[in-house]
């Protein structure tokens, strides 16, 4: 049974069964030990973690009630800015960058005495689906370290799946929270665009990027989402959560809920994945939900639309890395232009350079209308198609990834084939919708399979309600053989 | 399809060097990706106008002076700085 780790540890702390110092030490020691196999963390922060733990212990000793997230060991993807703690984006170009401010999400969790164990591994600038484009090498899958953890938030998924962090925050531009969560057999939520502040998140593609939780249970995802979904004046696209906290409706009955399956989502998906998702639909039927099949032909263009627009935005966002104000700077050069070019060419990895070039190409004169403008219009078409879909169903059920975690080093060498692995996750980012990945089975080799529940804008409450009911009925989650044993 | 010459042109716009031993593979990869991107041209032209993802409009606020970050803190991440400024080579002679 996938119980709420946060609730369990909160009760243990509040009832003084364990001190926050003991709990924190257990996670630090496990992280130090298991990181050798998992490569989940790129920076460990034991001193600040223990400082926070002392604060929480003093509060408990004085008889004060603590909040749900107080004293809970957690992690942040290394593209979320942390004041005085290096934030690298797992790129050589930011290897020694130390932010002078906190991202809003971290400010919110820090105010609740969240215990930061460290910063986690990711594909360089969040560009990748295996975590293997990281400057520090890829994070490994806790269910089998011969396989990747997924990406780009592979480090968070590896740490949470391997229980060397209770929960973590990742970012999702084209599936980077949901895909690694699926590969590692845990839960990951990509919230509605604008629900969670992006202030302090190092930008990849600003109209797609969104921060969200990765946890071992749906309830924990709901708890963390409620804590971070606040309006923030520092992010001009911020709206915050709309409506009641999602925890309030998490366990509601779903009798009569309409669960939609778009046939296009099941095309080209491996058999074991399709079977697991189809079985999940049966579980929903047994819970009294109604399954509705429909077509979503606009999905056909989702992947090229995503890569055109995301790379265009990336080429602009990554223009700021010039070696002057922060980050790596080329050592020898003839003039300023030469310095900028050498800095960027040495500082960025191959995948990042490829996406900058593609983005520059689609924005350049002569190609703008054929690619960028056309893709923007198709984005409008996809948004509309989803709006129509939500007139026939409440939530959409789909696979998260067409396959299970690939073996290390086998992220397909053909660039287009690699991009195809994102086919089920990118539509949500294009339309700005919320999507959650929930474990729904294991293949013959014991690798986890994930399914995705997609909702209309700001309907996190509905998809998490459907996710919790499934999790509770199907009982799929298996802990990996790593991390803290309590 | 893109050729080497086009890649070199885009590289200049992107402020990136492409080494001689990288150009073959890069041209091949970029050609594949761009042919893939070309599939959007099969879609009918009646795309929907798209402005931004949440239909937000710009909100103007009063231009108020608020404290910013400490100059020294900002400069701490720069590799070269001098007298409170970022240091770069001469841009104009």
Keywords:
heterodimer; A: 486 residues; alpha/beta; Amidase signature (AS) enzymes; 11-stranded mixed β-sheet; two-stranded antiparallel sheet; 14% strand; globular; B: 93 residues; mainly alpha; 3 helices; 4% strand; flat
Q: Per DSSP, what share of the residues of chain A sits in E-state strands of 2 or more residues?
A: 5-15%
- CATH topology of chain A, by name, is Amidase signature (AS) enzymes
Element pattern of chain B in H and E: HHHEE
How many helices of chain B? The count is: 3
The overall pLDDT average of chain A reads 96
Structure, described:
With 486 residues, chain A is of the alpha/beta class. Chain A is built from 15 helices and 13 strands. In chain A, the strands form two sheets. In chain A, strands 1-3-2-6-8-7-12-13-11-9-10 form an eleven-stranded mixed β-sheet, sandwiched between helices. A two-stranded antiparallel ribbon of chain A has the order 4-5. The radius of gyration of chain A is 21 Å and the shape is globular. Chain B has a domain of 37 residues. In chain B, 35% of the residues lie in helices and 4% in strands. The longest helix of chain B has 18 residues. Classes of the chains: A alpha/beta (486), B mainly alpha (93).
């Amino acid at each position: 049974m996938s119980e709420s780790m946060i609730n369990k540890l909160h009760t243990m702390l509040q009832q003084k069964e364990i001190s926050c110092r003991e709990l924190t030490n257990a996670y630090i020691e496990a992280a130090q030990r298991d990181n050798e196999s998992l490569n989940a963390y790129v920076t460990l922060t034991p001193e600040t973690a223990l400082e926070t733990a002392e604060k929480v212990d003093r509060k408990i000793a004085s008889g004060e009630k603590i909040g749900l997230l107080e004293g809970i060991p957690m992690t942040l993807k290394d593209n979320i800015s942390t004041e005085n703690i290096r934030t690298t984006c797992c790129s050589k170009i930011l290897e020694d960058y130390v932010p002078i401010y906190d991202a809003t999400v971290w400010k919110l969790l820090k105010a609740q005495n969240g215990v930061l164990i460290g910063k986690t591994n990711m594909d360089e600038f969040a560009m990748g689906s295996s975590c293997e484009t990281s400057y520090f090498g890829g994070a490994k899958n806790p269910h089998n370290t011969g396989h990747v953890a997924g990406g780009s938030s592979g480090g968070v998924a590896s740490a949470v799946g391997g229980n060397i962090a209770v929960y973590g925050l990742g970012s999702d531009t084209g599936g980077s929270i949901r895909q690694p969560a699926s590969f590692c057999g845990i839960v990951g939520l990509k919230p509605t665009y604008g629900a969670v502040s992006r202030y302090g998140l190092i930008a990849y593609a600003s109209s797609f990027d969104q921060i969200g939780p990765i946890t071992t249970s749906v309830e924990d995802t709901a708890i963390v989402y409620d804590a971070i979904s606040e309006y923030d004046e520092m992010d001009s696209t911020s709206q915050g959560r709309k409506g009641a906290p999602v925890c309030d409706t998490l366990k509601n009955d779903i009798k009569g809920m309409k669960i939609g399956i778009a046939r296009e989502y099941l095309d080209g998906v491996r058999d074991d994945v399709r079977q697991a998702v189809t079985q999940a639909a049966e579980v929903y039927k047994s819970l009294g939900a109604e399954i509705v099949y429909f077509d979503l032909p606009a999905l056909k263009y989702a992947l090229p639309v995503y890569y055109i627009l995301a790379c265009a935005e990336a080429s602009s966002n990554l223009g700021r890395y010039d070696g002057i104000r922060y980050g790596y700077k080329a050592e020898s050069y003839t003039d300023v232009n030469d310095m900028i070019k050498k800095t960027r060419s040495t500082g960025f990895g191959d995948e990042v350079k490829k996406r900058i070039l593609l983005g520059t190409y689609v924005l350049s004169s002569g190609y703008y209308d054929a690619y960028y403008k056309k893709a923007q219009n198709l984005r409008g078409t996809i948004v509309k198609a989803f709006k129509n879909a939500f007139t026939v169903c409440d939530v959409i059920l789909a696979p998260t990834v067409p396959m299970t975690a690939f073996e290390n080093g086998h992220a397909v060498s053909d660039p287009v084939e690699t991009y195809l692995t994102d086919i089920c996750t990118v539509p949500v980012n294009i339309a700005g919708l919320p999507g959650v990945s929930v474990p729904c089975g294991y293949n013959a080799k014991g690798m986890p399979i994930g399914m995705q529940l997609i909702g209309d804008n700001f309907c996190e409450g509905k998809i998490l309600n459907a996710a919790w009911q499934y999790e509770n009925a199907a009982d799929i989650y298996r802990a990996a053989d790593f991390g803290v044993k309590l | 399809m893109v050729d080497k010459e086009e890649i070199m042109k885009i590289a200049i716009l992107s402020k990136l060097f492409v080494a001689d031993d990288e150009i073959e593979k890069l041209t091949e990869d970029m050609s594949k990706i761009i042919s893939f991107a070309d599939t959007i041209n099969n879609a009918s032209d009646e795309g929907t106008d798209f402005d931004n993802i949440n239909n937000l409009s710009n909100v103007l606020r009063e231009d108020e002076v608020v404290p910013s970050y400490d100059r020294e803190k900002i400069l701490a991440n720069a590799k070269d700085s001098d007298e409170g400024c970022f240091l770069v080579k001469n841009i104009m002679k």
